[in-house]
Every structure is written in structure tokens, then in C-alpha cells.
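[Q] Does anyone have a clean C-alpha cell version of this?
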Amino acid sequence: MRLSTTSYLVMGMIALRGPSTPYDLKRAVSRSVGYFWHFPHAQLYSEPERLAQAGLLALDTEDRGRRRKTYSLTSEGRSALREWLAAPTPEHFEMRDVAELKLFFNEAGSPDDVGKLAQEQIRQHEERIADYEDMVARHGREEWAEPRMITLELGLEMEHAALRFWTALAGDDLDRLRRERTERDPRG
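[A] Here you go.
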């Protein structure tokens, strides 16, 4: 059976949360990896069933009521997840940013589109930084959250980098941004 990134996301969430329904997974993803990993949430309803059929998840269905399906990680699933976590990641960082795509095609639009786009992006990145900093303030010192704060730190760095870029673009100050990047470059 071919395992996708979504397969590992499902197994990883169950490994962290414990037994989960697809709805539990959807909520947990929206409050965590959903900030940086976007995919159709319908997959969180179909993928657990596929993983259960492969023996990587165990399925428990309620006898009465809504007959909710709760999935838990099997030992085979835990092994597959651990192998994936330990394997090298040869894929290069991929950013699927609609704003960057619009910026690429900017010359086909109106001259003031870039400025509007930059202002919109500044607002969005400032909001995301505030959200992330709020998460750090609420959970940063809690022992259970400490391993996940590493990902949040990467998110903050990326948001600040994007904010620096869009702010420089909005202020027609890309030369300053280039100079600062050159000064920070340890390769000289």
C-alpha cells in the first residue's frame, strides 16, 4: 500500500492525540498543522478507513447512537510512522503561496495591484504572527506543548521573513532588504 503525506498526518495525529474519530482529527488538524499544511479535509474522513483496511489503524465502531468510528494506531502503524519520521526528507521546501503567484504575474495586471497585494499581505502576516505569539504565550511553557513549539518557532520565522519582504515591497525599499540579507549571509 502506498502511503501519502496525508496517511502520515493521520497516523501522526492519532499518535499524539490517542484514539480519534475523523471529526476529532479535523478539529485537531485545524488547530495545529492546518496552519502550515493545507489539504482537503475530506481526506480526514476517507484516509483513516484506508489505513484501517491496511492494518495500520484499528477501528472501533459504536454499537448504538451515531455509530461513530474511532481509530487508533496499531503496532504496524506506529512502526510505519517511525520509519517515515526517521527517513531523510529529500524534497525541497515547497511554498504554495497564491500571493507569490500573483506577484509573479503582476505585469499582466494593473500598476497599483502590487501595492494593494503588499498591504493585504502585511495585514495577513501581522495577524498570523499575533496568532502564533498568542499560542506561545498560552502554551509555550507547558511540558506537553514544548516539542510542538519547535514547529511554531519555524512558523514565526517564516511569517517574519514574509512580513519583512512585503513591508519592503510596499515601501519601495527592496534594496535595503537585499543589503540586510547580504550582511546576514555567513558565506560572505
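[Q] Thanks! Anything notable?
[A] The chain has a mean pLDDT of 91.
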